[in-house]
Amino acid sequence: MDRIASANVFVTIAERGSLAAAAEALDMSRAMVTRYLAEMEEWAGARLLHRTTRRLGLTAAGEVTLARCRELLALAEAIPAAGDAGAGEPRGLLRVACAQFLAQAALADALAGFLRRYPQVTVDLQVDNRAVNLVEQRIDLAIRITNALEPNQIARKLGECRSMLAAAPAYLAEHGTPADPQDLARHNCLAYSYFGKSVWTLAGAGAGAAVVEVPVGGNLSSNESMALLAAAGQGAGIAMQPRFVVMPEVAAGRLVEVLPDWQPQALGMHAIYTSRQHMPPALRALLDYLADWFARHGSEF
Question: Which of 22, 54, 161, 298 could form a disulfide with 12 if both were Cys (CB 3.0 to 4.6 A apart)?
Fold first, then answer.
């Protein structure tokens, strides 16, 4: 039997939770699904599933095999594009993931330019503030803003993301303007759930300037950066946000920069992917395009 099909059936069983649900999703008979599962277990040389009272569960061998099957299916999808490696223009589908504020403020524009240059490529942009699992979710490229990459991640640095502190004029008029970082302790600070939720790291201006870690707190936190920006604009408190999303609000007078002589810790902007080998031409073209795009727009970040 077709081992690629067997791998696809096994992944579907694991994701759907039963043979019957997999059969329905794949438009197969239950008997055919059972045959493919038997083929997969024979190939793996181990039992992959065990039955509980409510649903199927993965054995230890099944967990390992599931991850490998997902990798196998991702490679299988890339084979048609790989066949075009020497044929000229990149083509095919790319799945790209990033946070919402980055998608709105930068990546949508960058991808629009990329697609004009490479019209045979299709991009599926997945917007999610959480770090995605590239293999499990079949993501070709994730753009992450972080200084804490995992040791086994393959990444290409695109640039740095600089942040700033800002608040609405009405908030500062009512609560006062901080004169130094320690003043933040008495203010309502709007915290981002995935970074700096309780401590903000600030560096003074100039070489050799002091770096301070300031405990902060407030009555609003969120995993969505744009929500915090909007709340700051309504006078809810002081927010630490990327400069490229705050500066238009400052220019319009809706926000005021706070502690301009103290800079929040800069974060690396990274393109993360699963393998340097067997890279589809479309993915390589996108990596190169984004590296050039962020280099040209680096002053805005």
Answer: 22
At 18 the pLDDT is 86
Q: How much is the pLDDT for 54? A: 62
Mapped to the 3 state alphabet, what secondary structure does the chain carry?
CCHHHHHHHHHHHHHHCCHHHHHHHHCCCHHHHHHHHHHHHHHHCCCCEEECCCCEEECHHHHHHHHHHHHHHHHHHHHHHHCCCCCCCCCEEEEEEECHHHHHHHHHHHHHHHHHHCCCEEEEEEECCCCCCCCCCCCCEEEEECCCCCCCCEEEEEEEECEEEEECHHHHHHHCCCCCHHHHHHCCEEEECCECCCEEEEEECCCCCCEEEEECCCCCEECCHHHHHHHHHCCCCEEEEEHHHHHHHHHCCCCEEECCCEEECCEEEEEEECCCCCCCHHHHHHHHHHHHHHHHCHHHC
Q: Which residue has the higher pLDDT, 108 or 277?
A: 108
Of 22 and 276, which is predicted with more confidence? 22
